[in-house]
Amino acid sequence: MAACHRNWVLDSRIELFNRGWWMWGRRRQRTLWDITSLLHPQEAGRLPEPRRNTCHPPADGGETHLSDRSPDTAESLRRILFGGTFHVFNYEWRRSFFQFRELNSELSFALDADRGGARAIQMVVQARIIKHLLFGRQGGSDGRMLHSLSEVGQRDQDRALAAALSDSLWLAGQEVSATVTLVTEDYCITPHLDYKLDNFTEKLQLFTFNEKDDLRKFILDHIQCFKEERSHGVILFLYSLICSRTVDRLKEDLDSTTSHLLYLSLGNFVCRQALLNLLLTGKASPHVFNGTLYFGEDGLNLECPLQGVLSRSDVGYLHWSREQMERDRLPQVGSMLKTPMFPVWVCCINGSHSVLFSLNRSLLSDWKMEHLFHLFYYNGQSSQRTVTRLTVDTHSHHWEASSRDTDRDPEKRFPSLEMTVRTKWEGAAIDWNDTAPFY
Question: Which stretches of sequence are listed as region Disordered (predicted)?
Answer without folding.
Answer: 45-71
